[in-house]
C-alpha cells in the first residue's frame, strides 16, 4: 500500500508542518492532477523496486476534492483497469469527504484515521453504514487518536495537537473502565474498530520491533463482552 497526492521535489519550499527526522532533502508538493499522480506512481514504484502495488490511496485531499476526483481518481481507476494496482482508495482524517467519494466514484477501500475510535466515533454516523452497503472496506488508522488513548495524561495529544482537558478527562474515564475489567486501554483501543462489520483491518504504527510485538499481544488479548457494553455506554 502506498499513497498519491504529493510529489517529492528538491526545489520545493520546505513544509513548515514536516516533523519527520532523517529524511532526504526533498519537500512535498501537493498535486492531485492526473499527470501528477501518474508521475507519483512511477516514482514510488521505482523507489520500491516494484511493478505493482496492492492498494493505492489518494492521501488527504481535504482542500482539493474536485481535482482529486477529476484527476487522481481517474488515474487510479485507469491503473486498476490495466492491472498496475489492485485497489483504489483514499485516506483521510475526516469522514465527510470520504462519504462524498463513496457516493460519487467506485472506491475499493478507505483509510479512516482517528474518526472511529473509543474516543471519536463520528465515522459511524454515515460513512461506515454507507461503506458496508457499497462493499467498501475501511481500514481504521489512528486508533490511539495521536496518543491520548495510549496514555491519557494532561500533556497528551489528540488529532496531532495538545488535547483539550475535556478529552483528557473522557480518556481517563475510559482507562478507568478498562482497569476495572483488568484490561489495558491500548488493547481496547486497538481492538475496538474491528467490532464494526465495515472494518476488516486496523493500521497501527510502530517505532521498533518491541512496539510491534506489543501491538500483536494487545490485538490478541481476550476482552470481556461486558467491557464493551460499559465502554459503549
The CATH architecture of the domain at 2-147 and 194-210 is: Alpha-Beta Barrel
Helicity level = 25-40%
Largest sheet: 6 strands, parallel
Question: Considering the protein shown, what is the CATH homologous superfamily of the domain at 2-147 and 194-210?
Answer: NADP-dependent oxidoreductase domain
Order of H and E elements: EEEHEHEHEHEEEHHEHH
Q: Total number of β-strand segments?
A: 10
| Unreliable stretches | none
Q: Please tell me what the overall shape is.
A: globular
Order of the strands making up the biggest sheet? 1-4-5-6-7-10
Count helical runs.
Answer: 8
The N- to C-terminal Cα distance equals: 36 Å
Structural class based on helices, strands and sheet pairing: alpha/beta
Instruction: Write down the overall mean pLDDT.
Output: 93
As a whole number of angstroms, the C-alpha radius of gyration is 19 Å
Here the CATH topology of the domain at 2-147 and 194-210 equals TIM Barrel
The level-1 CATH class of the domain at 2-147 and 194-210: Alpha Beta
Relative strand content = 15-25%
Task: Explain this structure.
By secondary structure, this protein is of the alpha/beta class. It has a domain at 2-147 and 194-210: TIM Barrel (Alpha-Beta Barrel). It has eight helices and ten strands. The protein has helices spanning 34-48, 65-81, 96-104, 127-134, 165-180, 185-191, 209-220, 225-232, and strands at 2-4, 6-9, 27-30, 53-59, 85-92, 109-113, 137-141, 157-158, 161-162, 201-202. The protein has a six-stranded parallel sheet. A two-stranded antiparallel ribbon has the order 2-3. The protein has a two-stranded antiparallel sheet with strand order 8-9. The mean pLDDT is 93.
